[in-house]
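Hi, can you check this record?
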Amino acid sequence: MELREIEVFLVLADELHFGRTARRLYVSQSRVSQTVRALETRVGGRLFERTSRRVRLTALGEQLRDRLRPGYDQLNRAFAEVRALATGITGELRISLLSLAAGGPRFAEIVRSFSAEHPGCAVSVYEAFPGEALARLCRGELDVMAHWLPLSGPELTIGPTLVREPRALAVPVGHPLAVRGSASLEDLGDYEVVDSTGVVPAETLDELCPARTPSGRPVRRRHREGRMAEVLALVARGEVVHPTVASLPDYYAHPGVTTVPLTGLAPLCAALVWVTGRESAAVRALAEIAARVEPT
């Protein structure tokens, strides 16, 4: 039995779906089917029951899974530990997120994969304090961060994109825009937003929330931006509206706040960013794993 066959079998035993298994292993779905058929021929019995609606392990398949899993996991751990020694990926990798949404829904998967491949390197993840993220990165207090784009600087490397998000506007529950069900960039001229000047770079701020509407009206800013909990409290009180991304409610919630689609702005992207002169083997390994994950 080849190691790749064992891997295909165990991943399918986890996913119970041929398409997801193929995507996870970067092979064709027909390759997964062929491998399973070959294993079943070799074993002499059915490992999976397949219908048009579901895939499930047979009793024989469960027995094989339970016997193969410990040995396969031990092989992977041994390889990862030796690889960590060879690559020098040890110590700690410090990651910061400009916001949880900037990491995207696949961020946890990326970190899990990094930890599995490099068990000798501890990972610490922080949510950035507004205005401090890039400064801490440049001082060497952080190794890499997830930041909204655009972002430039001769000392920075922009890595793989983590997320590509449609825009939304956070407004109080019952707000006229909530009743309407959508907002436009022009609508921002009728309300106030939090003041993020100096909190995020000017080029990023212009993308997050332009200074003027399409007709030229200024977008008024008040209340220095703080933690997201503070911003949502301001929104709930009706003092500001907050341009954001559609996934905001997946990461932050407030009973007095809802979001509506915000038209007139292109999707917002976030990427891994690090200081070029401090690029390490661990940072490169994280970027390689992130590049394998398609941004949402």
